[in-house]
From TrEMBL:
Name of the protein this chain belongs to: Phytocyanin domain-containing protein
Membrane-crossing segments per the record: none
PANTHER family linked: EXTRACELLULAR SERINE-RICH PROTEIN, SERINE-RICH PROTEIN, PUTATIVE-RELATED-RELATED
Pfam families: Cu_bind_like
Segments forming domain Phytocyanin: 95-163
């Protein structure tokens, strides 16, 4: 198999508005839940799985959805390990003639064409689908346009939990609707996103992976998907921080440069402790999208002067802290 090179949506942005690991400060105000999550992640972290590609992974032509194009091959991992409902990288850039090769690292997932406005619904416009497949299966698509192409996992509930991705994502480096501009608000107003971001800062403090995906433009995407998009970007950043050899100086991702086992971070969004604590919070998840759509909300989050999350009672925060910390110790 040829060396695989993934060109990713990548642009630097300032993270000064977010609390840094070890700084002793947060920008969540009085939110007991979020402070609890930050302390747990900083103290305990989460162990990572490893993945060593099998000899058949990505090389069995009989399992490929289409023939290869004339350009380079870009690899996207379908679920890096069982239970992690992500495509890695979440977004890739490809030229006409390039081949995007999807490689399954876990069982029971699909790659199905969707659209920007209906991320979790199959589109009838130039449709493609792999069907439900298992580990080591490969599915290839030749890129015939540089327009954004969305895809998702068609297994019930997987997309709704964040399992979707983009080929040639829309970009807007200086827009207030870019991932980089909106991230502080989304982190401040969604408890799961804040937990994932805290873990990312613990794993990737000082890493250039912190900047990955910042220029992705969300202005034409449905507001209810904002937090899921942010979580996908954060997971890819965490993955790249754990596997720094894959991230090149120019921002591209080359999944073929290292012969070492691949480190697979935990996906905090699927951990029961995070989901249970999140459901106990009084802030609806939709607050992230409504606040993010407001320029005033974005500015407030960037300055760190306000938070959309309400504080929990002190006893609830302590209970969540103990439960969450214990969960990490047991992993």
């Amino acid at each position: 198999m040829d060396s695989t090179s993934t060109s990713s949506a990548y642009n630097s942005y300032s993270t000064s508005s977010m609390a840094s690991y070890g700084s002793g400060s947060t920008n969540w105000g009085s939110s007991g839940y979020n402070d609890c999550v930050q302390q747990c992640i900083a103290s305990f972290g989460a162990p990572m799985a490893t993945y060593t590609p099998t000899s058949t992974s990505g090389s069995d032509s009989s399992s490929s959805g289409t023939s290869s194009g004339s350009g380079s091959t870009i690899t996207v991992i379908v679920a890096p390990t069982q239970g992690v409902l992500r495509y890695v990288p979440f977004a890739v850039n490809a030229s006409v003639g390039d081949t995007v090769e999807f490689v399954w690292h876990a069982n029971m997932h699909t790659v199905t064409h969707s659209s920007e406005l209906e991320v979790c619904n199959k589109t009838l416009d130039d449709p493609f689908t792999s069907g439900v497949q298992n580990e080591s299966f490969t599915f290839s698509q030749v890129v015939n346009s540089t327009d954004p192409t969305f895809f998702y996992c068609g297994v019930p509930t997987h997309c709704q939990k964040g399992m979707f991705g983009i080929i040639n994502p829309p970009n807007a480096i200086d827009s207030n609707m870019s991932v980089g501009s909106m991230m502080p608000t989304l982190v401040s107003n969604d408890s799961t996103t804040s937990a994932m971001n805290s873990y990312m800062q613990t794993v990737g403090q000082g890493s250039s992976a912190e900047n990955w995906g910042s220029s992705i433009d969300m202005s034409n995407m449905p507001s209810e998907a904002y937090s899921l998009i942010a979580q996908n970007v954060i997971y890819t950043r965490t993955f790249l921080a754990a596997n720094p050899d894959y991230l090149q100086d120019d921002g591209s991702v080359n999944l073929g440069v290292s012969g070492a086992p691949m480190m697979v971070p935990q996906d905090l969004a699927t951990m029961p402790q995070v989901k249970d604590a999140s459901s106990a919070s009084s802030t609806p998840a939709s607050a992230a999208s409504s606040a993010a759509s407001s320029p005033a909300g974005t500015a407030a989050a960037a300055s760190g002067n306000s938070s959309g999350a309400r504080g929990l009672a002190a006893s609830s925060a302590v209970a969540a802290l103990v439960a969450f910390g214990s969960a990490f110790l047991l992993l």
